[in-house]
Amino acid sequence: MKKQKYIFLIITFVLSFGLALFVAVKVFPNNPFSKKKTENIQSDKIKSGDIIFQTSQSPQCEAVRIATNSKFSHCGIIFDLNGKWFVFEAVQPVKLTPFDEWIQHGKNNKYVVKRLKNAETVLTPEVLQKMENYGQQFDGKEYDAYFEWTDNRIYCSELVWKIYKNAAGIELSKLRELKDFNLEDPRVKKILKERYGNDIPLEEKVVAPSDLAESHLLKTIIDNY
């Protein structure tokens, strides 16, 4: 009798735990039990050379979104290095960031992954290696908060654009000038004032994350916004 009682308690506990886990996964999709599964599914979809976009949360990134009329304020290139996924990005400093860690830096962990429409024929292993090799010259360099079109310092979309242009021979988008963007919003004016004072380089060549995201050469692979 006592043995049957213990068996009943064990079965009750197992069923209760299973029900609680099921509810947690369904009601709280970002809990640890479901998160790993989601990440694995997403990782199965990405390839080296993919470009990834997110919404960062700093005041400067907010100004970038406003000036470019886009939800995107940061981007990087995905590389498979020794079986592990990384995002090569221009932050302070330029560096490789593990894929899952990079996702967590964006607002609400939202991101979009885009790929060349003809990536299977264009981004050969040899071309991807050239992209990695070319990008190494920027590794460890300072982030360019002044958005200058030089290689001394570099910002996120500039890094992606230059790697594709100079290592793969692909111009993802046309370059624009700073004056082409929406600079009239008070939040944008505040950042520009802090950066340049009264000497704003309106004719500086610029490429924004939104320019890359809207490139007709790319197709969307993942969009969890």
Notes on the structure:
β2 (74-81) and β3 form a beta hairpin. α6 (125-135) crosses α7. A six-stranded antiparallel sheet has the order 4-3-2-1-5-8, sandwiched between helices. A two-stranded antiparallel sheet has the order 6-7. It is globular, with a radius of gyration of 22 Å. The longest helix is centred in the N-terminal third of the chain and has 26 residues, at 2-27. It is built from nine helices and eight strands. The chain has 225 residues and is an alpha+beta fold.
Summarize the structure.
By secondary structure, this protein is an alpha+beta fold.
Topology:
Elements: H1 2-27, H2 32-45, E1 51-54, H3 59-68, E2 74-81, E3 84-90, E4 94-98, H4 99-104, E5 112-116, H5 119-122, H6 125-135, H7 156-168, E6 176-177, H8 186-196, E7 205-206, H9 209-213, E8 218-223
Antiparallel strand pairs: 1-2, 1-5, 2-3, 3-4, 5-8, 6-7
What structural class should be given to the helix and strand makeup? alpha+beta
Overall average residue pLDDT: 86
The number of helical runs is: 9
Helix proportion: 40-55%
Search tags:
single chain; six-stranded antiparallel β-sheet; 9 helices; 225 residues
